[in-house]
Amino acid sequence: MSARVLYRRVAGRGHVFPWLKKDSLRAKRLHGVRGETEAEAGERGGTETETQPLQAALPSSYRLHYSPAVYYRAEAEGQVPEVRAEGDEGKQRLVALARPFRRQTNHYSVSSSRRLSSTKNKLLDLAFNGSFERRTPSPPLYRREHQTPDLKLDPRAFQRCRTEYGSMTLDLSRRATPIQSKQAFLLLHKASVLKGRMKASDVTQFLSELGSLYQEQTPLVRSDTRFIMLLRYSVENLRQFTNAELLQVLQAFVRLGLPSTHSMLGLYENELIERASHMSLHELLLAADLWRCLGKQVPQFLKHLYNSVNLYLGQLGIPELVQLLYVMGEGRRCPNHLIQPIEQILMRHLDKLHPEEIGAVSLGLFKSQTSLSEGAVNCIVDKANAVIEEMSDFAMVNVFKLLRFSHLDHRAWLDIMAQEVPRRAPRMDVQGLMHVTLACSALHYRNDSILLSVAERLPSVTQHCRSKDSSKLLWSFGTLGVLPSQCPDLYPNLVEALRQRKAEFQRYPEHLLTGLLGLAFVSQFPEDLLALALSPQFVSQAVRNTQLELKKDFFTLDSTVALELPHWTGPRLASELGEEVAALLWKYAQSDICQKPEVLEAERLLQDLLGGEQFVCKRMILPHTRSVDLEVHLDSTGTPVPVDSSHEATSITEKSISTSPSHTGWQKIEITLTEDLLSQLVNSKKTTDPLALSATSRLPVLHRVEQDEGDRLFNVGVDLSGDLIGSITKPSSPVCTARDFHKATIKLAIQVSNRNHYCYQSQQLLGLHALKRRQLQLAGYRVVELNHWEWFPLLKKSHAEKLAYLHCKVYSSLDYS
N or C: which end of the chain has fewer CB within 10 A? Predict the structure, then answer.
C-alpha cells in the first residue's frame, strides 16, 4: 500500500501521525492568531488563495506541506489573539484544523450532508457552494477606511437607559456563562452524531450554546466542518423555526461573529421578510437590530418593518420610538409617510427622554436625512441644552450633527458649546472633534474658544485620522478663516496625516480635493499633494466616478494654482475640461445669481451713474470662484472706460443682459440736490449699529426689508463726508474716447455680497470668498464691495440716495495720490 493511501485511511478517521504534530501545531498557531481558514476568508470576500495539495512524499521523508498564506490576512482586517492548545482540548483543535488541510476543493462539502436529499437542498447547495464559484477578489487595502484605534464610544449606550430595550435589542456587553473550546467541540460532536435526526429546537440549542464561546475562540468553531454542517441543517429547518427560535439563531450568529457576506444569511432574510406581517413590533425591531449587529444591509426587510409600523403607532412608547429611529439611521432612510407621525410622538415624549436617548434620536434623524419642522428641531436642541452636563461627548456631537443637517443656528446651544467644547476637547477622539468643527463650518459659526481648543488637541491624535477626518478638518478650519499663525502645529500635522493616507485617495478622491481647497483658503499649498491631485491619471479616475461631481473642485484648484503659484511647473487641468466647467457655471449664474434683485438694481444704477450699459459688465471675472461681479473700468482721472471683455482670458463671451434703459454719455447723468435732499442727507439720524460705517453724519434709520435666501438686513446709513458731497456736486467729466485708451486703466470688481459670504453675525469672510478677494487683487482688480448690511436697506430708498451710495463706493476706491 502506498504512503498516500495509508495516510488517507488513517487520517480520514481523525488521527494525526506523531511526525505531523510539529507542522500541524505550527499551522494551528498561525490559525489561532489570524482566526480564519481559507474557506472563511472566502466567505468574507477575501482573495482566493491556491494551496499546495497534500502529497505523500517518499517513504524516507514524510513531510506535510501547507501554504502559510492561507492563515495570514492583511493587517487591516484585524487580528485575533493567539489561542494556545493544551491537553485534550489541544488535540480536538488539532483534529479540527487538520480537516481543512485535506479539503482543497469544496470547503463546504461534508460527509454527513450526503444523506440530505439533493432535491430538497437545491437552494441550500446554491447558498453554500454557488457563491464561492463566483468569488471576487477582495478590494485592495486602500478601499477600507482606516478605523480610529482610540475610539471608545458606544453608539448603543442609549439601550442601557431602560430595561424595556432588552426585548427589542441585543446587549452585546452581556452574554451567558462562557464556555471553553473543549465544550464547544463536544457540542459539535453531538451535532454530527444526530445528523439528519436534528429538529429545529436541537439546532437552536446547539447554536445558542456555541454562541457562549469566548470571543477569541470563535474562529476555531467557525472553521470546523461540523459547524458548517450545523449551518446546513439550520437552513433545512428554516421553515420549522418559531419566530423566537429564528431570532435566537440570529443572536447566536452575531455572537459567533458570522460574516455579513455569508450567503446563507440571504435565506434567513427572505424568511424574515415572509414572516414580517405576522411578527410583533418588538420582534421586528429585534430582527432589525440583529441585522445591524451582523453588519448586513437588509433594505427589503426594513421596508416591511416600516410598513408594519403604521399598524403599531399606538404602541410606540419612548424605547420603541428611539430604537426605531436608531434603526432608520443605520438603514439611512426614513419613509415619508412616517415623518409626521414620528415627529408628533417625539414631541409628546420629548421631556421624558434621557440625555443619551436625545443623542440617539439626533443621530437617527441625521443619518436617515429626516427633515423635521424647524420648531421640532429647536425643541430637541432646547432639551439637549437643558441636560448638557449629563450628556456624553458622543451624544453632544450627535446634536451638533442634527443642527448641521437642519441648517439651524440655535444661539443658546452655540453659546453653551463655547464652554463645553473647550472643557471636553482634551479627551475627545478625532471623529468627534471633526464633527464639531464641521458643524461650526456648515453653520458658518466661528468661535475661537471652540476652534482653538480643537486645534490644540488635534496634533496629539492626528496619527489616528482617516483621510476623511483630515480633509474635513482642513476644509472647516480654512472655511472659517483660522490662520496658520493662530495654531502653528495644526496645518502641518493635518497635511502630514493626508500624506500618510495617500492610498485612500484612489477610492475617495473627494477627500484630497476637500483638504487641498481648505488649505488654499488660508494660502497653504503643499505642492506634492497638488501634483497628485492635478495629475492626469488622478483627474481621469475621479471624473469617471458618476456618483461624485468633482469637476468644479478640480477647476477651482487648478485656477487657484495658476494665480497663486506662478512658478508652478507641475501638471495642470486640461483646458477643455476647464472651459466645460466655466460654461456650466456661467449658465447656472445666468439663471440664478444674475437675476437676483439686489444684483439687477446695482447693475442698473451703475449704468445710470457711469453713462450706459457699455461701462458695466456683469460677468464671472474669476469663474472658478463661482460668483458674479460687476466689472467697471476707470482711467486715472476717474473717467469711465467702456468695458470690452472680449480680450479677457477669463471672460464669458455672451453679453450680459441689462434691465435698465441705455444712456449715451456721462455728461447727461445729473443728480439734482435740493436743499431738502441735502439737509436730509447731511442732518441724518445717528445709528448705533456696530456694522455701520463710522462717520459723524448718516442717512436716516432704514427699515428692514425681507430679501431672498433669508438675508439679514441691518439698519445702517451711508457716510457723507465733505469729499462725497463734493464728488456728487462736481461738474460731469467727459466720456473717454478711443484716443484715451493708452492711459492707465483702473479695473474695479464690484461685488454684491450677502450674509452667506460671511461668518455668522460677523464681518469675517468665509474661505471661498476670502480666496476670491485675494485672487481678484492678484489679477489686477480693485475690489469694491456693496456690503449686504449697507446695500440691502437702501433698496427701498430713493434713486438719489442709491446713486449717492454707489458714487461714494466707486470713487472712494480710486487712489489719486
Answer: C
pLDDT at site 815: 63
Beta carbons of 364 and 398 less than 8 angstroms apart: no
**Residue matched to cell numbers 487591516:** 76
pLDDT at position 593: 92
Instruction: Give the C-alpha separation, 10 to 56, whole Å.
Output: 13
* Contact criterion met (CB below 8 Å) for 445 and 759: yes
Separation CA 26–CA 411 (nearest Å): 63
Amino acid at 379: C
Cα 643 from Cα 620, distance rounded (Å)? 14
394 near 155, Cβ under 8 Å? yes
Q: How far apart, in whole angstroms, are the C-alpha atoms of residue 48 and residue 229?
A: 22
Report the alpha-carbon angle 785-787-790, nearest 5: 130
Say if CB 795 and CB 705 are below 8 A apart: yes
Contact 110, 229 (CB under 8 A): yes
Cell 513531510, residue?
Answer: 63
Instruction: Supply the pLDDT for residue 676.
Output: 53
Give the alpha-carbon dihedral of 590, 593, 598, 601, to 10 degrees. -10
Cell numbers describing residue 387 = 441636560
Contact 349, 318 (CB under 8 A): yes
pLDDT at 173: 79
Element (H, E) at 786: strand 781-786
Residues 303, 256, 113: CA angle, nearest 5 degrees: 90
CA nearest neighbour of 445 among 755, 740, 42: 755
CA distances from 671 to 293, 511, 678 (A): 75, 54, 11
The Cα 617–Cα 633 span in angstroms is 9
Segments of the chain scoring below 70 in pLDDT: 1-152, 645-743, 815-817
Q: Residue 437, CB half-sphere, CA atoms under 13 Å: how many?
A: 32
Taking the CB of residue 710, how many other CB atoms lie within 10 A of it? 9
Query: Which tens digits make up the pLDDT trace of 413-439?
Result: 999 999 999 999 999 999 999 999 999
Strands 745-752 and 781-786: parallel
Q: What is the DSSP string of 316-338?
A: --HHHHHHHHHHHHHHT---HHH
Q: Decide: residue 350, CB within 10 A, 0-12 exposed, 13-18 middle, 19+ buried.
A: middle
Grid cell locating 62: 514524510
Angle at 295 between CA 292 and CA 299, to 5 degrees: 65
Check: CB of residue 254 under 8 Å from CB of residue 292. no
- For the chain, state the CA radius of gyration: 35
Continuous H helices in 566-687: 575-591, 597-610, 675-682
Residue 88 has a pLDDT of 40
φ, ψ for residue 623 (rounded to 5)? -55, -30
Quote the CA–CA distance of 86 and 90 in Å, as a whole number.
5
How wide is the angle at C-alpha 189 spanned by C-alphas 186 and 194, nearest 5°? Answer: 130
CA angle at residue 218 from 214 to 221, to 5 degrees?
Answer: 125
- Residue 195 — left, alpha, or beta (φ > 0 → left; ψ -120 to 50 → alpha)? left
Give the cell for residue 208.
445558542
pLDDT recorded at residue 645: 55
Nearest to 277 by CA among 233, 243, 228: 243
Cell, residue 465: 485620522
Q: How many helices (H) and strands (E) does the chain have?
A: 35, 5
C-alpha torsion sign, points 74, 79, 84, 85: negative
Which residue, 207, 32, 14, is CA-closest to 96? 14
Longest dimension (CA), the chain: 126
Count Cβ atoms within 10 A of the Cβ of residue 809 and give its class: 0-12 exposed, 13-18 middle, 19 or more buried: buried
Listed residue (111, 107, 112) closest to 128, CA to CA = 107
Amino acid type, 204? T
- Confidence at residue 152, expressed as pLDDT on a 0 to 100 scale: 57
Task: Tell me how far the alpha carbon of residue 553 is from its chain's centroid.
Answer: 17
